[in-house]
Amino acid sequence: MTIDPRDTTRRSLLATTGSLGVLGLAGCLSDDDEEDEGGNGHDDDDHDDDHDHDDDHDHDHGHMDIETFEVIDRDTDDVAVYVHGDHWHGDPLLVPKDDNLSVEAHVEDDHGDEVALGDDEEYTLNARLADGAQGIVDLESHGDHLHITGEETGITDIVFQLWHDDHADWESPALEVEVVEDIDDHDDDDHDHDDDHDHDHDDH
After folding, report:
1. What are phi and psi of 63, to 5 degrees?
2. In the predicted model, what is the mean pLDDT of the chain?
3. Which of 16, 116, 121, 198 is at 20 to 30 A from 181, Cα to Cα?
4. pLDDT tens per residue across span 111-157
5. Residue 175 near residue 81 (C-beta atoms within 8 A)
6. What pLDDT is recorded for position 63?
7. If residue 200 lies in a helix (H) or strand (E), which one and from where to where?
8. How many Cβ atoms are within 10 Å of 182's Cβ, its own excluded?
9. Omega within 30 of 0 (cis) for the link into 173
10. What does the DSSP assignment read for 94-162?
11. b/e string for 170-181 if b means 16 or more Cβ within 10 A?
């Protein structure tokens, strides 16, 4: 039997073409496997970018955990009121009408480290009226201390803030503030009331 040389050439060409097609297909599959090592249908580089984005989203800006917040009367250096959990001790804070109470704060974070306050520090002491509170006091920040000026007698609520750049990183619970005509007279009245209470207790 005579073999046509043209048939041999065609067979060789088809065999070669088929081999190249198989190799090309294997190469495509290999590239896809490398791009999808995690089996998630996405390129791993893109997945890493998404993970980095999530890290940025999870970072909690504008929040501090404060363990100690004491408001100190700058005239007496005594602690006037202090935060305990979600409430205050020693309230109400008395403020004189037509005068100001100058206060500073002793602050420690949840690691026990003192938080420095001042215009040259990372944080300053600030305050605002609580939502819905009467505007009977004026609040003026001086970086490391605060002036609370009584404008009308009565009771209101304020919120202390640790201010950073243009926002508060921490806010206190609402503090009751009472504006009185004379703090000394108010203190004497409270003392007399306590004495009467003690006297009644002794009689019983």
Report:
1. -145, 135
2. 77
3. 198
4. 999 999 999 999 999 999 999 999 999 999 999 999 999 999 999 99
5. yes
6. 84
7. helix 183-203
8. 13
9. no
10. EEEBTSEEEEEEEEEETTS-B--BSTTSSBEEEEEEPTT----EEEEE-SSEEEEEE-SSEEEEEEEEE
11. bbbbbbebbbbe
Residues in the chain: 204
CB-based contacts of 2: which residues, under 8 Å, 6+ apart? none
Tokens read off for 32 = 């896809």
Tell me the average pLDDT across 164-173.
Answer: 96
User: Which ranges of 36-110 does DSSP label H, i.e. alpha helix?
Assistant: 44-58
* Distance, C-alpha 37 to centroid of its chain: 39
Backbone angles phi, psi at 24, to 5 degrees: -65, -40
pLDDT tens for 89-98 read: 999 999 999 9
- All structural domains of the chain, each given as residue ranges with its CATH number in brackets, are 66-180 (2.60.40.1080)
**Which pair of structure tokens corresponds to residue 16?**
């070669």
pLDDT in tens, 39-79: 444 444 444 444 443 433 333 446 899 999 999 999 999 99
Percent of the chain with pLDDT over 90: 58
Q: How many CA atoms lie within 13 A of 4 on its CB side?
A: 4
- Local structure of residue 1 (DSSP, 8 states): -
